[in-house]
Amino acid sequence: MKKECLYTLKKQYRDDLNIYGYRFGRGEKAACIVGSIRGNEVQQLYICSQLVKALKRLEEKGAIVEENEILVIPSVNHSSMNIRKRFWATDNTDINRMFPGYHAGETTQRIAAGLFEAIQGYHYGIQFPSFYLPGDFVPHVRMMETGFQSHDLANHFGMPYVVIRQPKPIDTTTLNYNWQIWNTNAFSLYTSATDRIDEDSARKAVASVLRFLTRMGILRYTSHSGYLASVIREEELTNLKTGQSGIYQRYVKPGEEIHQGQILASVIDPLEGEVLGRIVSPVDGIIFFAHSAPLVMEGTIIFKIIEQLHE
Amino acid sequence: MIKEVVSVGLAVDECLRIKKNVLQPEQLTGDEKRICIVTGTHGDELEGQYVCYELNRILQEHKECLKGIVEIYPALNPLGVDSISRGIPMFDLDMNRIFPGEENGAVAEYVASQIIEDIAGADLCIDIHASNIFLREIPQARINVNTAQRLLPFARRLNLDFVWIHAAATVLESTLAHSLNSIDVPTVVVEMGVGMRITEEFCHQLTDGILCVMKDMGVWSGEAIEPKKPIISQDGEVGFVNAEAPGIFVPCVEHWRNVQKGQRIGRILNSLDGTVEQEVYAPIHGMLFTLREYPVVSCGSLIARVLGGDFE
Ligand SMILES: [Zn+2]
Q1: Does domain B2-229 have CATH number 3.40.630.10?
Q2: A121 at the B interface (CB within 8 A)?
Q3: pLDDT tens-digit series, residues A232-250
Q4: Do residues A206 and A262 share a domain?
Q5: pLDDT averaged over every residue in chain B
Q6: Which terminus of chain A has a smaller tally of CB atoms within 10 A, N or C?
Q7: A83 touches chain B (CB under 8 A)
């Protein structure tokens, strides 16, 4: 294992921001793994720290196949994480909306450019991002439909689901999209948490990455076979919204099987305690995403459901 | 007549409401042109508030001169204006990156779709921005090169100092202006002043310009000035200056002035050890149309933009 500083941003009022990379093995640029880019992505940071630990042990045992180099970058934006901000601390811009970056540009464009330069040219790029709506997911691999992506490869993570997203204009400045445009097979791994640590899904995420690296011939490692993934297109998910606003009570978890007519959640009058409405499942299926904050606005998407097809 | 464009229930006893004031002649013929003035997409940009007030005042004082429909939307992001946050508070989203929105999407996308639906069909929309808290801008229109032909006739008459025709970028396809232009509502983005402040003189200048355009379009028969002739520029002639060291930026030139190539614009100072971190120079000869207002800078912070050429 070699720790190196990939990029430094000089600061005046606090310590410099140093972005560290951990290199394992040597030779061809095989895989690059990027953890937390936003300041609230604590689970993502934790997963990468566990990956660094696991890869260090595997390397010591000679488990990295010759002529393969793996680079892990656990944290890009601890300047924000340390002061509990999600976006860049001084101007609130999002580094994950600045790719491929620009060396002579604004601060976060420079950080993105510095990072992107260090992580280009890898065969596989794996990122642990977060979603903009507060809530929990079924662990899944997400890919963008850029014309360069390959669903078959995504299956090798052995995660239960692979989700294909049709990119919108705003996606064209994310790391995942730009990796693909620059010929890296890019995957985004979502686990069940962001700003808190979920041990179980973190362990599964580490296992998924090790499984993927093994199946790609980069690691020698005995891994459990994992799931045979179902491939879903994002637009096929059924969105369930709440018609009321108030205090939200959830009765089901991501991954749970649900039935048509089942009550999934209630919204309670925040002043008087009475139930204002119940959210009833219109279909049989599996909860893919569930809103997690205790309050809801009218029209909030509180569940995304994978509809079960009856044959 | 004040109308609600969209409302969404918040958790406890309150609704997010986007409102507009519709001003129109008492007798409608059905042939009236309709102009929408929108602002407050970014909650920290306030220059548009004063323009909305002034337009409201002038049009209501001279009702007899109003020959078309003017709709004033002072706050597309009312929760942002109220809470001094640039984005939509609960979502941490830049509202100008979610258009055209989606009726069945998440709340912010639904709101965006309702705004578009409400403005659709207008003969002109002016989207007033006020830079951000970091940079001061001279009154200018920003136009995507693909829409320049259609929008220049309006932008020239808005009494602005500058029209910046910039290159198209995919990510900008999610702005309000792009979405409206693509459904045939000519939409001009105006940037002026600085965030969290009101620059009265700029607000009067733009208000006068809006009245000119209204008069051109037959919406207003009252008094209107002859507008300034703006400098019109393509992207290539703009020089950027970014901070190469962190510290405190103190300018030594005034905004909206000519500078020579290599002329000092200001300095970045170190308050801990009393040194000068960087002397900042103009990259090209021209007019300083953007100047850093907020003193604290990081590596990369934009300090100035200079439009190349000779200006009086
Ligand atoms: Zn703005």
Answers
A1: yes
A2: no
A3: 999 999 999 999 999 999 9
A4: no
A5: 96
A6: C
A7: no
